[in-house]
Amino acid sequence: MGTGLSEDAMTPTTTTTKNAAAAANPLGPDSLTWKYFGDLRTGMLGVWIGAIQNMYPELGAGVEDHSILLREPLQRVARSVYPIMGVVYDGERAAQTGEQIKSYHHSIKGVDTKGRRYHALNPETFYWAHATFFMLIIKTAEYFCGGLTEAEKRQLFDEHVQWYRMYGMSMRPVPETWEDFQVYWDTKCREELEINRATMDIFEIRIPKPWFVLMPTPVWDQLFKPMVGAQRWIAAGLFDEALREKAGMRWTPGDEVLLRLFGKFVEFAFLAVPDEIRLHPRALTAYRRAQGKLPADAPLVEAPGFMAPPRDRRGLPMHYVPQRKSLLDRAGSLVHTTFSLTGLRRPARGRGEKSGKAA
User: Which domain of life is it from (predicted)?
Assistant: First the structure.
């Protein structure tokens, strides 16, 4: 945020940090982060996390200058989630995935409209994005998964530190304790976050119909308009009061009661959702590797090819481009999914089995 840091100080890609990431222990199936982060319910907080990330001035400036989120929001989010999930679920390869994500950020730098220099690999900026993913878990579990005990929040905090080490970034911005983190979060919300153009773009986002969806555009627009509106309402409820005031959002006690009731409905409804739908594919295959149903070195799940960035952007270093799968691989995946959805499945972590015995 206009700190005047040199580019070298803002981009910690030294051998020391890489070795630190490689030496760190990745999270495993016994962690609460595994239980919650890959759950489909985190998707209900899409507007919340997009907006609160962009409120950080450096991050928002990078999005305004370099992102194509408004051009293809569904594809952009869907393909980004795969490597982000991988830093949690890729086991011994998690540090490698963290390095992959860092590589996308080297060229995201510039000067914002207020003359402040920014770089996506500024340690404070990079950690803020990670902190929002940690809070995504806290908020999702609190509102839509039955809640968390104070001990579980402390465990998730410790795990988020372990998770962050997978990036090989400077640990300087990371609070030391859960109590310190709460002060950090409150200070950011009250004093540093701002309502900028990138934030307003999230609030006002329209989901363009992807070319591969066989549906009339007016029907698509009517389908997604209330869904985005509902996410804005959820975001308003999950924002700290200081952020609601900055954004000019209204939230009443009645809204809070309604959100809590909706959260309970979602919690109970998801008891009937199979793991093949409830879990992100990167998370589902991680549980299967942990159980021994897949080899430990099985290829990591990539985003579907149709989620790749536009052809005119594929040569840019900031984009993750899913590797193309062979026809045999795609056929095998289809058969596997079909049998899974017809009932040949076992519960994953948190669905009736103890840790280490997840499907």
Answer: Bacteria
